[in-house]
Design goal:
This protein is an alpha/beta fold. The protein has 17 helices and 11 strands. It has helices spanning about 5-20, 25-55, 70-85, 95-110, 120-130, 140-145, 160-175, 190-205, 215-225, 245-255, 265-280, 345-355, 365-370, 375-385, 440-455, 465-470, 495-520; strands spanning about 230-240, 255-265, 285-290, 305-310, 355-365, 390-395, 405-415, 420-425, 430-435, 435-440, 460-465. Helix 11 links the parallel strand 2 (about 255-265) and strand 3 (about 285-290).
Length: about 525
């Protein structure tokens, strides 16, 4: 797919969203728009698979007659094969294009509102049937309550049943016209479109966006960092996975990932992450996303991961209960991160989950680099006792939705190739400004990754600091202590300035004399 085709598709999708969402907030409409795209994907994937199963019989899945004995028998046979392979099932009458066509005919012929409720009723039943088709199977957890945020009875869709039905029908009809090219195995058109919309809705949602979406350039940077030495990964994990975009970016950057793990505490975002996995063709058996608060109730604590990436909510609150002092994730440090700032609690959790040969990269606010008290103690322990910190990378300000603060990336490994030093990179001035947002371009990301791999000193950009040097700085990791970005001003020639001032004074005296002469001729006092 060319860049121009991708741009046109994105414009087409956003036009649907922009035209139809009316007064609904972007993050509210997101759940409907993305949910219906997901339904379209599931339908088209079922149809492609079922047509393959029926190919020898010369049949097409969408054309099967479910109300005949023979048709029902064939549908049931296809169902068994489909659930086993894909993890879910839809009947021919439940396919996206079937319900969109039904709605389209209704809009054309039913202007009086008679029977206007049937699309919503059908759709509600279909979405429930998708979830129920997985009951008792290995995919049940991944499809459970997946569509719960698509409330088709909500007044946000319209004041009347007719208005709700017309809006939903218009969305389905518009989406039905878009070809996501699922037959092209080399393209991830639908996945890209889905991720594009998540990003656009995140931009519109403002501060809330930080809860579920990491900007793509930042995701790419983290993914490249954790795969730089190990492109083939058995496992990758994100303890605050949001919509799952960061995990999927690691999958894209790696040569191969066996299984994806994540945890998310927001139910809506958790559903979004599971949809995102399936949309990007991650088989239900190859991902394990859990719903819970990671710090309070970790769901994968018995597992260790080769790659860990995270963009935790900045300076979030957590309980910091003293009960955690007996939790293996935190007890070894002797202190807990403060209840008002959970940043280093997430780091401690990630270190615990990291395998001995693994690599983790986490985005955090700059405060973790220099704040004292318990955070200073934890930071010192990670460096002095564990020696896990491999690199500190300063990022530009204003690259995240909803916050303009500058951030940093910490890269940690339990088995480091350079155990005697820590690399500092100041990439804070390397970005492009687009409207009100700062953007990391591919060349900026590549420069960071290349410097990380080479571990070289570069004037005003990077510095390899010895552990001894960091110790002398009381384990303060503030980047300007190590990377000198000071720009010396041009030397000032005081003699030249003195000569200019003298010339100005002489010229002023000449001017004053002329003014005095004019005043004498006019018979008035000079103004000085």
């Amino acid at each position: 797919m060319s860049e121009e085709q991708r741009r046109q598709l994105q414009q087409q999708l956003w036009k649907i969203a922009d035209d139809l969402r009316g007064k609904m907030n972007a993050d509210e409409f997101r759940d409907y728009m993305l949910g219906f795209i997901f339904y379209k994907y599931l339908s088209e994937k079922i149809e492609r698979f079922a047509d393959g199963v029926l190919e020898g019989d010369g049949l097409k899945f969408a054309e099967l007659k479910e109300d005949t004995a023979e048709g029902a028998e064939i549908v049931e046979a296809v169902r068994e094969a489909t659930v086993k392979a894909l993890g879910y099932f839809l009947k021919p009458s439940e396919l996206f294009k079937a319900i969109a066509l039904k709605g389209s005919n209704q809009l054309d012929t039913n202007n009086e509102g008679e029977g206007h409720n049937f699309i919503l009723a059908d759709l509600t039943k279909i979405l429930k049937n998708i979830e129920q088709s997985t009951l008792g199977t290995d995919s049940a957890d991944d499809f459970s309550n997946l569509f719960e945020d698509l409330d088709l009875t909500s007044s946000k869709l319209g004041a009347t049943e007719k208005a709700k039905n017309e809006l939903v029908t218009k969305i389905l009809v518009h989406l039905n016209k878009i070809d996501f090219r699922l037959d092209d195995t080399n393209a991830d058109v639908l996945g890209d479109a889905y991720e594009y919309l998540i990003g656009e809705f995140a931009s519109g949602a403002g501060k809330k966006a930080g809860e579920f979406y990491t900007p793509q350039p930042v995701s790419t940077l983290l993914a490249k960092l954790v795969t730089s030495e190990k492109p083939n990964l058995k496992t990758v994990y994100d303890p605050t996975c949001g919509s799952g975009s960061l995990l999927l970016r690691v999958k894209r950057e790696a040569a191969h990932v066996d299984k994806i793990y994540g945890q998310e505490m927001n139910r809506t975002t958790y559903n979004l992450a599971r949809m995102n996995m399936i949309l990007h063709d991650v088989h239900y058996a190859d991902f394990d996303i859990k719903l819970e608060d990671t710090l309070e109730h970790p769901q994968h604590r018995d597992l260790r991961f080769e790659a860990i990436v995270a963009n935790p909510p900045f300076s979030a609150k957590w309980s910091a209960s003293q009960l955690f002092m007996s939790d293996d994730r935190f007890s070894v440090y002797g202190k807990l991160a403060p209840s008002s700032k959970a940043d280093l609690a997430f780091v401690q959790h990630m270190i615990y989950q990291l395998s001995d040969d693994g690599c983790m990269a986490v985005v955090l606010p700059h405060g973790v680099l220099f704040r004292g008290a318990a955070e200073g103690h934890i930071r010192q322990y990670v460096i002095e006792q564990m020696n896990y910190l491999d690199a500190v990378i300063g990022l530009p300000a204003n690259i995240f939705y909803g916050t303009s603060i500058p951030t940093c990336v910490l890269v940690l490994k339990k088995c480091r190739r350079s155990p005697d030093d820590i690399l500092f990179i100041d990439a804070s001035q390397h970005f492009d400004k687009v409207k009100t947002q700062n953007i990391l371009r591919p060349e900026h990301i590549q420069k960071i990754v290349a410097t990380y791999k080479a571990r070289t000193n570069e004037d005003k950009y990077s510095y390899v600091a010895s552990i001894e040097e960091i110790k002398k700085n009381d384990y303060n990791l503030n980047i300007p202590r190590y990377v000198d970005t000071f720009e010396a001003e041009d030397a000032i020639d005081l003699d030249a300035i003195s000569a200019k001032l003298q010339a100005i004074e002489e010229q002023s005296q000449v001017t004053d004399a002329k003014i005095t002469l004019f005043c004498d001729e006019l018979g008035i006092k000079p103004p000085f």
